[in-house]
Amino acid sequence: MALGRPSVFWEQSRLNTVMLDFSLGVKSPGLGICEWLLTILSFLFIIMTFPISVWFCMKVVREYERAIVFRLGHLLPGRARGPGLFFFLPCLDTYHKIDLRLKTLEIPFHQVVTKDMVTLEIDAVCYYRLENASLLLTTLTSISSAIQLLVQTTTKRLLAHRLFCRR
After folding, report:
1. Cα separation of 142 and 136, whole Å?
2. Start-to-end C-alpha separation, the chain
3. How many distinct helices (H) and strands (E) make up the chain?
4. What does the pLDDT read at residue 63?
5. For residue 32, what are the contacts with CB-CB under 8 A and spacing of at least 6?
6. pLDDT computed for residue 24 by the predictor
7. How far apart are CA 134 and CA 120, in angstroms?
8. Is residue 66 predicted with pLDDT exceeding 70?
9. What gap in Å lies between CA 30 and CA 128, rounded to an integer?
């Protein structure tokens, strides 16, 4: 009886893990048969047309950039490519370059009502630098609007709890 329970627990644990991976949208590791076949055919085509095709398979990423490579629409495992040369399959892969330099974003005027009912109009300038390029590309559609909303709500929240009138 005790020997049967761990296997049931293991199956239940495995089932929960699979369901958790499915609910988070995580792709199972490994390639399917069609992906392997297309990858092998693409490599064979590159080898057959080697002198010409090598110029289409090598790309340069500058020091301040990173390249995120997608193969057949799936993010390739590992970190972002760069700086330097990287190899990709032109028929199967697409890449996006992300600039990692310091950027500025001007936050427009917005009104804040403080704790003592004083109305303030404030604007701001935000400086930001991207750290994880692949996470940025796969989770956000517009980084500038996300940062602008974050800065506005943070300043409103900070200033709304302050007192500015002294009695």
Report:
1. 9
2. 76
3. 5, 7
4. 92
5. none
6. 38
7. 38
8. yes
9. 36
